[in-house]
Amino acid sequence: MKTQILMSALIALSFAAHAQEVKTKRAPAQEAEQSSTYGVDLGPEEDAARKDQYRRPPGPVQGGVMKVPHPGAAKGLMRINKDGSYQYRTSLKPKSQAMSFRVGAMTPPIIQGRANGLTYKSMYGSANLFALQGEYEWMPFQSFGSLGVQLGGGFATATGNGTLESGPPAEEKYTIFIIPMTAFAIYRFEYVRRQWVVPFVNGGGTYYGLAEKRDDDSPVKFAGTFAVGGGGGIHVSISRLDPQSAFTMDREYGIADMWLTLEARAMQGLDQNLDFSNQMVTLGVTMDY
Fold first, then answer.
1. Model confidence over 31-63: pLDDT tens digits?
2. Dist. CA 130–CA 103, nearest whole Å
3. What is the domain extent for residue 275?
4. CB under 8 Å to 28, separation ≥6 — which residues?
5. Does 34 share its domain with 134?
6. Of 167, 173, 212, 277, which has the fewest Cβ atoms less than 10 A away?
7. Over the chain, what is the mean pLDDT?
């Protein structure tokens, strides 16, 4: 019985010694495997330094934003909106021309008949005339402000009664049509694009074409006269109020800038018998392209 117990103890000791030997042999193999992570045998200190060198950079703070370069940045990409649309930086197109459409009031001219001494006011009254004005502007010089040429035309009309030679008004109705044709030089005090307010001055000559019609079968009478003068006003930028609409107007319709325009001008007639001296104030819209 004692012999069997002794044999069992010896066998257990033998197995324990064998297991310790296997564990000791495996440890260097694992260490060698760890030290050859980068293809070369490294010591523990060198291996730790190499791992620090290739450590992943830390991410943003929780709730923060990490900025990374986008491939579209080279093409002018500014931001990506929440709806997924891309917003690009765009440049303003150059402009050299403009069109203006305005409405306003014109003071009655000083017209006096050569033979009978009748005046405009005696036939058509002293009320201001409703006037329409349209102009084209060419801006060839823009190095300092904008200097250009302005060509325009307009329309105004009035109705009144004729006057008998004895003095009382006649029953016939008269209608006068006034068509001014203007050639002006214009200078804009515009030094940067999308300037909020742009004052301007202009001056030159105007030819007034006149046509007078009576309400019976009498033939239409025509006349014309010249006047010189000028004026000024301001452009107030509409494009600055809504940049998105301004971008659409530029890309789809070629309108570089849009303005609300207020202008006043005074003209001096050159013919004493058909003196078309007057003042006019107009308000409208100007479009640069």
1. 444 444 444 555 666 666 665 555 665 666 666
2. 8
3. 97-288
4. none
5. no
6. 167
7. 81
